[in-house]
Amino acid sequence: MDALPKRPANYVPLSPVGFLPRASAVYGDRTSVVYGRLRFTWTRTYERCRRLAASLLSLGVRKNDVVSVIAPNVPALYEMHFAVPMAAAVLNTINTRLDARSVAAILKHSQAGVLFVDYEYVRLARDALLIVADAGVPTPLLAVIDDIDMPTGVRLGELQYEELVSNGDPAAELPSLVDEWDAVALNYTSGTTSAPKGVVYSHRGAYLNTLGQLLSWGVGAEPVFLWTLPMFHCNGWTLTWGMAARGGVNVCIRQNRAADVYRAISDYGITHMCCAPVVFNILMDGEARQLAAPVHVLTGGAPPTAALLDRVERIGFRVTHSYGLTEATGPALACEWRHQWDLMPLPERSRLKARQGASVLSLADANVLDSNTMASVPRDGKSLGEIVLRGSSIMKGYLDNPAANEEAFKGGWFMTGDVGVVHSDGYIEIKDRSKDVIISGGENICSKEVEEVLLQHHAVADAAVVAMPHPHWGETPCAFLVAGNKAAVLCKDEVVAFCRKRMSRFMVPREVVLVDALPTNALGKVEKVKLRDAARNLVPSKL
């Protein structure tokens, strides 16, 4: 049997780009993209992507060249997920919340050959390019993406997105993918604990992760997907390609304002959306609306509390909790629902949903190990270890960073740096970042567990817990709290008393700091490094 060769008929390199021509052939007359008054079909989207790919080749873009883009969730950003790899180039979606210096660092490190920028971010791009030029690094070609529904006329440079689409030849011969290990995308980490690193995805990994997400989440044919998740987050958790695979509708909105989200859900009959828990806060802060029909939501990026899940479930969102990271091509674990859990009270169901769950199907394995012995921790829901992953959807590696690659890959595993436990049913639950675990007198304290208790206090809107020095115990918890509203009164002593009734004494914060807002990075994640710096100068209270 070993003599049987691979043939063009039985071996084709895996790539998520292949979902688009299939969508055009099978779902050609179905709506592919909705944006304002704009409507495209899958046939039109396929044609536009071919045209853009042809124009990129005419600009001199070649295999493995990086094409960067700064844009919100607009049709152009969706199309580039197919058009850029169609030209054998590598797509680099840049977080729109970054500052000019951070954008310049990405452009320099990636050596981007072309930069597309949405009209709203022209000033950001201009400032970043000046920094690149001052560093003596060649600047990329620049193309502006104007609003396709209501053009503004904003320009920066000579190239313009819609002109490139119009001028491209849809019948032009495009490069064929030969090796599925070739790079399809380059994404940069958020840099919450270190400098951002360039994470390289392969065509194979992105393809398998796309299928894994669709299956794990149970996405059927013809979903109507609302883009509340930025497409620059791990390529929309690979669901940019996944919507083409299922012939879905991509409803694009520029901002996640509560009114816009609720209006889109009502107007278009949204069936699915993805978001970080912060979007739930936006939707619940105003007048939460009861949904006419259930909307399935995949959430991740930060662990949501059981209380928050309880609230959003009550108005009609059907939440699946996931866990992932840039290096895993997005979600790596999903809390797959079990029918027997439907019989449980809603608060108990919410507690179960707060767990991250089982590995997605694109992974070969996920585990929680003692990082010193590399042995599995007991499945008791208490023993802490590092979450590790293995599978074809794991990144190829960090771009031009061999030291980071050696640290990330160990013993046949990808080391996530996240601390978790395994429950008796095999479901994994994240507890902390390894750097966020507080070690007090030899006891490990998960900051997330303390934060969850603090968020149960009626006057607390947001909470972050970090380690602060202690002369006897080494470290002790310090809590930074945001009041729920202007009328809420947070008394430090009351908060401490509240915690004492709900947790072990050694876990109770010995210092409580009231702040107007928690510091966050460009992905909306709390920058605990800044809070730890502040906590170093505090003196712990006696309890």
From TrEMBL:
Obligatory cofactor(s): Mg(2+)
Catalytic reaction equation(s): (E)-4-coumarate + ATP + CoA = (E)-4-coumaroyl-CoA + AMP + diphosphate; (E)-4-coumarate + ATP + H(+) = (E)-4-coumaroyl-AMP + diphosphate; (E)-4-coumaroyl-AMP + CoA = (E)-4-coumaroyl-CoA + AMP + H(+)
Q: Indicate yes or no for the key word Magnesium.
A: yes
Q: Which Pfam families match?
A: AMP-binding, AMP-binding_C
Q: Ranges for the AMP-dependent synthetase/ligase domain?
A: 22-399
**A GO BP annotation:** phenylpropanoid metabolic process
InterPro entries assigned to the protein according to its UniProt record, in alphabetical order: AMP-bd_C, AMP-bd_C_sf, AMP-binding_CS, AMP-dep_synth/lig_dom, ANL_N_sf
GO MF annotation list: 4-coumarate-CoA ligase activity; trans-cinnamate-CoA ligase activity
Q: Which residues form the AMP-binding enzyme C-terminal domain?
A: 449-525
Family from the record:
Belongs to the ATP-dependent AMP-binding enzyme family.
Protein name (database record): 4-coumarate--CoA ligase
Q: Which organism is it from?
A: Hordeum vulgare subsp. vulgare (Domesticated barley)
